[in-house]
Amino acid sequence: MSYPYAYPAPAAPAPSPSDSSSPSSASDSNPNSSVPVINAIPLLEPERLARNHAILCTVGFLILLPLGIVFARYLRTFTNKWWAGHAVIQLVISVPVISAGWHYGWRVAQMAGLGHFIDPHTKMGLALLILYAIQLVWGLVIHFFKIGAATTRPVQNYFHVFLGLVIMILAQEQVHYGLYIEWPFATGNIHPVPQSAKNAWIALVVIFWVLYLAGFALLPRQFAQEKRVREERKLNGEKL
Ligand code: HEM
Ligand code: HEM
Question: Which residues form the Cytochrome b561 domain (predicted)?
């Protein structure tokens, strides 16, 4: 059975990224290359599942969910339709990706045979999935049920924003832990995580926070618009 070899492993034992003298991949065409045999080993089944898990969970939590958040931050003062886009990204697109990621992680743990949710990564993974589910339900609740005759921004809306950002911070830490600790621990580090994956982590974290915080520049405009809407509703005798 042949497995895709998507984690090009540096020569084992794992060299430091700055060690330019070590061969960089099994596809090194130099016939005299001293690439150890281990480099030519394709990913084993648990590694393949763990890699799929890592990619899907990272795409879900560090690309799609941040995209939905930044989408809301920037577009909400320009169109009323922002909410639909936010919900489609966070719910319709992200749920299948994150569920598939969880499925693969579950199967790795299953193969290890030590039980589920037994170490910091798997426990935090479960917590994140629960928080994500709560956040989805909460988002729908604050959109469809306007609770209380609020004359100011409802506290439940602030809670959704707060929980969304907490999920982001935990997910960023979770992926970091996965790359630096869980992968070597659970797979035996036969094929170490490539430096490019670690660089991608930093890039995704920095890009999200820079974009999101820069979007705070739109807050005065947003609050002014929301105030205007509340005043209009009050004048018309509508529920606030
Ligand atoms: C936000 C992103 C992530 C979440 C929510 C997450 C969550 C999980 C969950 C729920 C499990 C299975 C728990 C169980 O059934 O016991 C798991 C297992 C695992 N995850 Fe992640 N994970 C994430 C990212 C990563 C990354 C980036 C890596 C590696 C690069 C990784 C490596 C692993 C490994 C190797 C296992 C198997 C652990 C074992 O069997 O002991 N995860 N993860
Ligand atoms: C069905 C899914 C979802 C719905 C219906 C929904 C709905 C909403 C609504 C109504 C707001 C406006 C809140 C306000 O008044 O400020 C909002 C903003 C926000 N949502 Fe969601 N949401 C969903 C999923 C998520 C998820 C999964 C996350 C993150 C994990 C998230 C993170 C955020 C954040 C951070 C904001 C604030 C954006 C800003 O700064 O303006 N949402 N969402």
Answer: 17-218
CA of 224 to the centre of ligand 2 (A): 19
Residue 148: which pLDDT band, with cuts at 50, 70 and 90? low
**Cα separation, 9 vs 191, whole angstroms:** 5
DSSP per position, 138-166 = HHHHHHH---S--SS--HHHHHHHHHHHH
- Ligand 2 atom nearest to CA at 216: 40
Whether the pLDDT of residue 26 is over 60: the answer is: no
Residue 10 has pLDDT above 50, yes or no: no
Tens digits of per-residue pLDDT, 43-102? 999 999 999 999 999 999 999 999 999 999 999 999 999 999 999 999 999 999 999 999
Structure tokens at 136: 């989805």
**pTM score:** 0.85
Cα separation, 216 vs 15, in Å, equals 42
Q: Please tell me if the CB atom of residue 14 comes closer than 6 angstroms to any atom of ligand 2.
A: no
Q: What is the largest CA-CA distance in the chain?
A: 83
86 alpha carbon to ligand 2 midpoint, in Å? 7
Q: Ligand 1 centroid to 178 CA: how many Å? A: 6
Q: Tell whether the torsion through CA atoms of 223, 84, 131 and 213 is positive or negative.
A: negative
Q: Residue whose CA is closest, atom 28 of ligand 2?
A: 164
